[in-house]
């Protein structure tokens, strides 16, 4: 058995439990590497994008209410991929919809799984520079406010819990590295 397959779980059955607008939930019965069986609850997600928008010495963030947390959060602009949409196009769309800014200087930073223990959601992270201000067009069910913050403010927001999601914390650390080394 090859090293990357020695922990593989073989799906014996799969049951769709819920299908929503954004996510679906399935329960799989799997055979474990030792021959035993187990149940796996899996969230399926279409994938998402997030953007680190840098405007001179500031990062553009949005504050919005997050119902699962029952509080407002400060985050980088982000959103789910539409069917068939390329991540770069989604990143440009989300940047403009949520902040009003556009950019022709966008670079892919990384793609990462948010919670691989129970979900297949992947976020494609980009950095956008040389921003040009336009008009924000949030979705009709999005209520948010934009702010341009310094690195010090971002770090303070993390300490205060105003920034507490993984993608934005990663963005702040990537920005800090960029400021120190010139590379992201």
UniProtKB/TrEMBL annotation:
GO terms for molecular function: hydrolase activity. The keyword Hydrolase applies. PROSITE patterns: NUDIX, NUDIX_BOX. Its cofactor is Mg(2+). SUPFAM superfamilies: Nudix. It holds the Pfam family NUDIX. Gene3D superfamilies: Nucleoside Triphosphate Pyrophosphohydrolase. InterPro entries: Nudix_hydrolase, NUDIX_hydrolase-like_dom_sf, NUDIX_hydrolase_CS, NUDIX_hydrolase_dom. The keyword Hydrolase applies. Keywords: Hydrolase. Residues 43-178 form the Nudix hydrolase domain. It comes from the Bacteria. Belongs to the Nudix hydrolase family. This is NUDIX hydrolase. It comes from Paenibacillus aestuarii. The lineage of its organism: Bacteria, Bacillati, Bacillota, Bacilli, Bacillales.
């Amino acid at each position: 058995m090859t090293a990357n397959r020695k922990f593989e779980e073989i799906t014996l059955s799969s049951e769709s439990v819920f299908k929503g607008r954004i996510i679906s939930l399935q329960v799989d019965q799997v055979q474990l590497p030792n021959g035993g069986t187990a149940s796996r609850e899996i969230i399926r997600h279409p994938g998402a994008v997030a953007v680190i928008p840098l405007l001179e010495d500031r990062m553009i963030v949005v504050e919005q209410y997050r119902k699962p947390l029952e509080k407002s959060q400060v985050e980088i602009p982000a959103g789910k991929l539409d069917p068939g949409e390329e991540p770069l196009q989604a990143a440009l769309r989300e940047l403009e919809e949520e902040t009003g800014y556009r950019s022709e200087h966008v670079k892919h930073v990384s793609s990462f799984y948010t919670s691989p223990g129970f979900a297949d959601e992947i976020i494609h992270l980009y950095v956008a520079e040389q921003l040009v201000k336009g008009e924000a067009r949030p979705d009709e069910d999005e209520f948010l406010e934009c702010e341009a913050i310094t690195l010090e403010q971002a770090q303070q927001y993390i300490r205060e819990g105003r920034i507490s999601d993984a993608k934005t914390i990663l963005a702040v650390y990537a920005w800090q590295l960029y400021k120190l080394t010139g590379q992201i």
